[in-house]
Write a structure and sequence with these properties.
alpha/beta, two-stranded antiparallel ribbon, Rossmann fold, 2 domains, 8-stranded mixed beta sheet
């Protein structure tokens, strides 16, 4: 008897940061690590979903992120912990596809390909996508100058491209703010949500991400419904709410 919901949807999860090349050896990127995205993917897999996990180079990956051994801890306990993680991974791995996107352009291309070719029904866009990118130079820029100036241009909004490709795709946006009061953060998120017409958006502030217990807010259609999730594991209840909203919208 399966341990998961056989009717669970196929899901695209984007995770990590994005890198925009300056030249052949340098990039502009951000602080996205993929930790929350990997937790979201794990929760989806535990609930029976097939997950296309599109991640940046070096981003945390589902289950693999738990494979590091803490050399200061009891090694027998650590080996037992990793053994349990591996058992869970083996139960899920046939429903997990890992796709790496080293640069922002790779992210755009792979996201469009997955949405066009794989029958995903739901996209959870946790990736910290770059807003601006330099015009890349061929070769390696000289490093003998005391300073140099980059001209940045706006990056395309991938979430909008995916919705244009697949109007039927249920897209969950993520909006990160920094050092904003809760009411200001929610007001700005509502405005972004309404402009894009997204059915669900997850809002959180950078300061809360750095605490042992994360807090995020899930805004429903139009931003009028707001649910708060807080604790060490917010991915599980958040995913339950996302899947419930997806089922209700079908």
């Amino acid at each position: 008897m399966p341990l998961y919901d056989t009717n669970a949807p196929r899901v695209l999860v984007t995770s990590g940061g994005t890198a925009c090349p300056i030249d052949d050896v340098r990039v502009v990127t951000n602080i996205g690590t993929g930790l929350f995205g990997s937790q979201i993917a794990e929760a989806l897999l535990r609930m029976g979903c097939h997950v296309q996990y599109l991640h940046s180079r070096g981003a945390r990956r589902p289950f693999f992120r738990c494979g590091e051994i803490d050399l200061d801890a009891d090694l027998d306990a650590e080996f037992e912990r990793v053994r349990r993680v591996r058992e869970e991974y083996l139960r899920c791995r046939e429903r997990l596809t890992l796709v790496e996107a080293p640069t922002f352009d790779d992210y755009v291309r792979e996201a469009r390909r997955i949405v066009a070719e794989v029958p995903v029904e739901l996209a959870v866009m946790t990736i910290a996508a770059s807003d601006y990118a330099p015009a890349p130079a061929g070769g390696k820029l000289a490093s003998d100058a005391d300073r140099f100036t980059l001209e940045m241009v706006r990056c395309p909004k991938v979430i909008e491209q995916l919705r244009a490709l697949r109007p039927d795709l249920f897209v969950v946006g993520f909006k990160l703010s920094s050092r904003l009061a809760r009411d200001v953060m929610l007001r700005r998120t509502r405005a972004w949500m309404r402009r894009g017409g997204y059915p669900l958006v997850v809002a959180n502030d950078l300061s809360a991400r750095r605490l042992p217990e994360r807090q995020v807010f899930l805004l429903g259609p139009g931003g009028d419904e707001v649910r708060s999730f807080a604790g060490r594991d917010v991915a599980t209840p958040l995913v339950e709410a996302i899947l419930a909203a997806h089922r209700a919208a079908r």
